[in-house]
Amino acid sequence: MTVVSSRLDPSGPEYGSRREAMLAKLADLDAEHAKAVAGGGPKYVERHRGRGKLLARERIELLVDPDSPFLELSPLAAWGTDFPVGASVVTGIGVIEGVECVITANDPTVRGGSSNPWTLRKTLRAADIALQNRMPFVNLVESGGADLPTQKEIFIPGGRIFRDLTRLSAAGIPTIALVFGNSTAGGAYVPGMSDYVVMVREQAKVFLGGPPLVKMATGEESDDESLGGAEMHARTSGLADYLAADEHDALRLGRRIVRRLDWHKAGRPPGPATEPLLDEDELLGIVPEDLKIPFDPREVIARVVDGSDFDEFKPLYGASLVTGWASVHGHPVGILANARGVLFGEEAEKAAQFIQLANQSRTPLVFLQNTTGYMVGKDYEQGGIIKQGAMMINAVSNSTVPHITIVMGASYGAGNYGMCGRAYDPRFLFSWPSAKSAVMGPAQLAGVLSIVGRAAAEARGQAYDEEADVAMRQMVEAQIEAESLPFFLSGRLYDDGVIDPRDTRTVLGICLSAVGNAPAAEPAGYGVFRM
């Protein structure tokens, strides 16, 4: 075994200060997660319970296998916007009757479960995960449809929800709708386009137009039950495949449907797994508060991979990027991790070769980001840093094995691209509370604007306003700092969630197991590498 040797000193002051800083960030994260769990607040939660209904997360808990994990995705969606944290929908990966499924559940305590622009983005992301990873897709439906004041941002792109359901079905991926309440207007097509539909008696209401709209459009008098009630759809329209007596019965029926799928994974099964030799709790004290200070990612790897066993590839070449082979919960992986932040030409070439090797052996890749980007400067430009960086980005772009990205620290500039940021479609991407991402660091960006402004003033023959320059730099630094923080980025779904570093191994294990539902993709076909 090639066990990683740790140099971390958990008793030292440096470790202690880093740990305290991370714990403070985790406390803030817990507070934001609590907002999502609170839904619409006590008033609307009690009103919902008064109708004899379960909350969205309670429905999920009863649907998934007892004591099995549920990996919630994008819980901070809509953070920093005018909409409630969580975007009125819960999405994630859970195990139902031994089958890994993507699950979405409308939260009817938040504006009746209506969909705002962030709800849409979160729901579409869940459908993408189901399709990419060949996982059954289960919708727990109770929604009043679109949040009408924002319809201009929902109506046209929202049609993708229904397109995705039909594409999943066409790909042989089961889609299941359990309808607990309203599913109206365009939302009626969620059960309408699902393979299996369960409706709760005297609760489910599915119609294209409710009684008021029908009255306005046709003059016809009708009531909810005859127009779109569960019993009508079970007996008359045939839209409901199963009529549930109550919510618990609907969840029982949903589990039975999944059990009868006879679903099998198409990917490679995992091998034996062993726990890391080093304590995962020590992950809290590794990342510096100041991301300009580098840290050794091997300390992270040693606390995440099976047996702390990491077979490093090219350890003496391109030392700012650590590459090598390991297993996580029995799943073989190739790991690329930034060691000193900046990427030089050697690191780019090393990464491109390593990615090609992983594609040859069909091994998933894990990217551990802490990068300030590719090196700049006259010598590096003349040495071909653009070609070298392009080679790495080419390799990442055309790689066909699953990619999973964890942003531990900085994720700046084109380093975000080369290390498989969101634009490069990793199967999953999570951030630590210490993560930051932007085109460059706040001070650097403000400094660039200052230099450009100073040069422009000199070209016009004007004196440069130094006081205005100081104010501008402070304003820009504050703005970029705020917009590079993980809550802000997660709120815009640039990741799949902000996680506790101690959960990294568990999250990676769930994701690697999920990608194993899909068969191995065709071997990568690369474009021209500029040498």
Give the topology, please.
Layout: H1 13-37, H2 42-50, H3 56-63, E1 70-73, E2 89-96, E3 99-106, H4 117-133, E4 137-143, H5 151-170, E5 175-184, H6 189-192, E6 196-200, E7 205-207, H7 211-218, H8 224-228, H9 230-237, E8 242-244, H10 247-259, H11 298-301, E9 311-313, E10 321-328, E11 331-338, E12 342-343, H12 345-361, E13 365-371, E14 373-374, H13 378-382, H14 385-398, E15 403-412, H15 415-418, E16 428-431, E17 436-438, H16 442-459, H17 466-483, H18 486-491, H19 504-515
Parallel strand pairs: 3-4, 4-5, 5-6, 5-7, 6-8, 11-13, 12-14, 13-15, 15-16, 15-17
Antiparallel strand pairs: 1-2, 2-3, 9-10, 10-11
Helix pairs in contact: 4-5, 12-14, 16-17
